[in-house]
Amino acid sequence: MQSTSGIVFGRTAPGIPVRDVDRAVAFYVDVLGMTVSFTNGDPVGFVILRREGAELHLTLVRDRPAGTHNVAHLLVEGAAELHDHLVAHGVRIVKGLRDADHGLRGFVFCDPDGNRIDVGEPLR
């Protein structure tokens, strides 16, 4: 394997395909408290959302069916509180809140397009 000691990786920003940009933005802003930092297209087909250190890129893909895999992993503080907040807003929870033996408390939820977001909080 070639040495990569001089290379430094930064944060990543997963691209999330959505069928309806306005509906997706409303969910991520109104329910998750993210803010729109960039839009592109007329009509808008690409949106960058941010909250604290998290960044998501929404991309319009009208004919994309929902997948059965996680499209993003979101590390948080307060996983239980986020879980309860999402439940209170009627968000579909795919995998319930649990403490995993790999050291994270987490759960998986779906956005309005069926994209699965895995949430994790390091156990202390």
Automatic annotation (TrEMBL):
Residues 8-122 form the VOC domain. It comes from the Bacteria. Transmembrane segments: none annotated. InterPro entries: Glyas_Bleomycin-R_OHBP_Dase, Glyas_Fos-R_dOase_dom, VOC_core. This is VOC domain-containing protein. It comes from Klenkia soli.
